[in-house]
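[agent] plan:
  1. take the single chain provided in the ticket
  2. run structure prediction with default settings
  3. attach structure tokens to the ticket
  4. add a short note for the reviewer (M.T.)
[agent] executing step 1
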Amino acid sequence: MSGYQQPVKVHTYPLSDAELETLAPDAASARVDLLRRVLNYHGWLYYVQDSPEISDSEYDRLFNELRRLEEKFPLLISPASPTMRVGGAPLSELPQRRHAMRMYSLDNGFSEADWFAFVEKLARLSSEAASGSFWVEPKMDGLAMELIYEGGELSVALTRGDGELGEEVTANMKTVRNLPLVLSSVNGDFPSLLEVRGEVVITRSEFEKLNMRQLEQGGKVFANPRNAAAGSVRQLDSKITASRPLRFFAYGVGRAEGVSWSGQQELMQGLQALGFAVPPQARLCHSAASVAEAYHLMGEERHEFPFEIDGMVVKVNSLALQNELGFTARAPRWALAMKFQAVQETTRLKAIDIQVGRTGVLTPVAVLEPVSVGGVVVGRATLHNEDEIKVKDVRVGDLVVVQRAGDVIPEVVRPVLEARSAGVQPYQFVTVCPSCRSQARRLPGEAAWRCVNKSCPAQALEGLVHFVSKGGLDIDGLGRKTVEQLFNAGLLKNPADLFRLEREQLLRFEGMGEKSADNLLNALQSALKNVILHRLIAALGIRLVGEQTSRTLASRFSCLDELAAADVETLTSLPDVGLEIADSIRAFFDNAANRELVAELKALGLDPQEGLKSAPIRETLLSGKRIVFTGKLTRLGRTEAAEIARAAGAQIGDSISRKVDLLVAGSDAGSKLGKADRLGIEIIDEEEFLRRAGLSEVSSDDGRNNNFLGQHSLFGDKNGN
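[agent] step 2 finished; step 3 output follows
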């Protein structure tokens, strides 16, 4: 992932159930695009930068909202969605290596009710699993790691990375004191190959000592033990890692050859016998009810653990049942992370700052007196928008309750009204942009105030950052910091200026050497030659037009000129484009400055003509057919199946009507099955679907991880080229 760039900073707040139910398809498309950008940004902060800005609970609420929308509107599903991914991209400075078996994330629960809902879902898949025993262990808040032992010796250590591609940190992990470099002998034998998975952590007491030492030496003070552990492992100099008080706790395995375990409990006992530390207070629960009791008990005792924990992990004990249940695109069906309730503290609200986003949205940010919330020092939190401030009646000068649920940046829950001083006035939301001093407006039906000045410096900067980011052209070596430097120096006023940069100009900046300057200029020239139309459309930052809509537009129009000439009627005829999005596209191209920018880019050579470079469409038995999927597919994820159908020349529908030609039905098919039968629509299973797509020889990969799109030549390389 050499082209990885910092995602654009963007935020939103979860919609209510009622709001989600009433979303029309075009509004849902815009909402899904926004949620993906928000989650990608915060996932990047958490997994790549080790510097999260929102709590786990806030992230989980947004993630669950996105998953619900994708389930309701299957046409919006994208392989690039955070729901299809785990974690973030590996750091480019470290060597990278692919995991032999994907390292999945876990689905989350937040209450006893969530646990029993999971058990009910489990029962529908396997009554034996739901009524059997469960292994429970504390959910450690550290850095996920895979250790590969060959012939009993540690050969490779990989971070989880994005779940498929990790960072190789073997030399660093060999310095961790409690990690066996050679496995202990079990009856004189070693597993010939063993991939051990676990968490690297720092205890609370060692974390405090580390920060004191950092202060004395003038080094970086870490925000929490997880950041300290992650930062220590991801060092280029293993001597630094060796100086840090790291510990490794094993919680599972990937590949295991030459050893056999029947259950999770036996597996953990086997890892202990091989020399690994395992999570303390892990235990076997013989019923779902006893798991609920363990959850409450561990929640009460969480602060007595030597290291930070933010929940409890529950796994079906039987390894045979784990294998039978398998995985979704994101997580195992046989495990659940039960998160604990949020930690709350009170502090003083000193001020409310206003940040200006790429589209002119003015976002209020609470400036707090720094307070330790569950071991993390917090000084800022989002207040979302004007309505949020009014509903909570938050005022500058108030004592406020600040909450976090497992990580760093909190939310302001409420003011402490009984402690409010006389004369503290309600907050009046700004109506003037703090960047350009232009009048702001709040459009009907929107919660946000916006700066409508297209020349606003803050918007221009955010637009430039977006243009080069992963959500835009994904230009290697051009992150926010560099863009800000160039912008502040007056070298960048709009995206076209990027392609006018000269080597001598870049070399004036501190930290920009000759090699870095040459690499950046080469990356820009590569973008000129190789950019795909949908990436350029996305990079322009048209309001409400995200990656999915950009792909739709690129599949219909062969170049920007064609798109710019399209009227509203033509635009709304496309599947992902409603009236609001069409109006936004027209408003963008009707703006003289935007037309001038497009002309400049075209004159510079940034004018892709080929339309969307998607998977090749072949003539198959599915060509020209409209297909709907229902139920659970066993060999493919829903996204993979949809991509296969598109590549085979089919169209994907999300509901049953007389226009549908085929229904592909998996297990637990719902009402669509009965409706299709009544309408006389042909119903086929997954195997027949693959046969008609010309892919009947697809391997199931033993049910562990199909990763079909990345393996089959029909879809080109990993990037879909």
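[agent] step 4 note for reviewer: Residues 1-6, 612-616, 697-721 have pLDDT under 50 and may be disordered.
[agent] ticket updated
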